[in-house]
UniProtKB/TrEMBL annotation:
The keyword Protease does not apply. PANTHER family: UPF0397 PROTEIN BC_2624-RELATED (PTHR37815), UPF0397 PROTEIN SPR0429 (PTHR37815:SF3). This is UPF0397 protein NK118_08645. Pfam families: ECF-ribofla_trS. It comes from Ohessyouella blattaphilus. It is found in: Cell membrane.
């Protein structure tokens, strides 16, 4: 049985790779929404993919580190309320990890639904609650703006994680052999 908070060498390597990919996608592959400082970020699909494969610690670190580095490079310093929300989003998605059998080559419709329910709940908590509240507390931002940004981020990040994350998990699961799928030829 997979342990929820197990952290092996393989997980450390995946965390580094995931954070780097998250950072690059966060910086360069995004679609404007028309709402100030709120884009559809493809990075959340990668974050959700890695979180589902390696668990909440890896997912949380990937979202947190990737977003913090991206902000530091692009703007000179991280916008901590959203960095924390990114970490919470990917951390939350990682809770689906023990329930999935991707390494066994299984990622069916029930797994897709489970993954997407968890990622939507994680995005909801992070973007509609955590990010706006921290924006108000840390940066004294106007509530109407940050809650609008939070709702748009929730929707766009849920779509990104749902579409990109699901596609990557389906493809990855097909690269794994299902138990008992090999048969002896006569």
């Amino acid at each position: 049985m997979k342990k929820l908070f197990e952290f092996k060498t393989r997980t450390i390597v995946a965390t580094g790779l995931g954070a780097a990919l998250f950072m690059l996608l966060f910086m360069y592959i995004k679609i404007p929404t028309g709402i100030q400082e709120t884009d559809i970020k493809t990075a959340y699909g990668i974050g959700a993919f890695f979180a589902a494969l390696f668990g909440p610690i890896a997912g949380g670190l990937i979202g947190f580190i990737g977003h913090a580095l991206s902000d530091a490079i692009l703007y000179g310093s991280p916008w901590w309320s959203w960095v924390i929300a990114s970490g919470i989003t990917c951390f939350g998605v990682g809770f689906v990890y023990p329930k999935l059998r991707i390494e066994e080559g299984i990622f069916g419709m029930s797994d897709i639904i489970r993954f997407n329910v968890v990622q939507i709940i994680s995005n909801l908590v992070a973007w509609v609650v955590v990010a706006p509240v921290l924006d108000i507390v840390i940066y004294a931002e106007p509530a109407n703006l940050v809650f609008l940004q939070g709702v748009v981020a929730f929707i766009s990040n849920s779509i990104s994680a749902g579409v990109i994350g699901t596609i990557l998990l389906v493809i990855y699961s097909k690269t794994k052999s299902q138990k008992g799928s090999l048969s002896k030829e006569d």
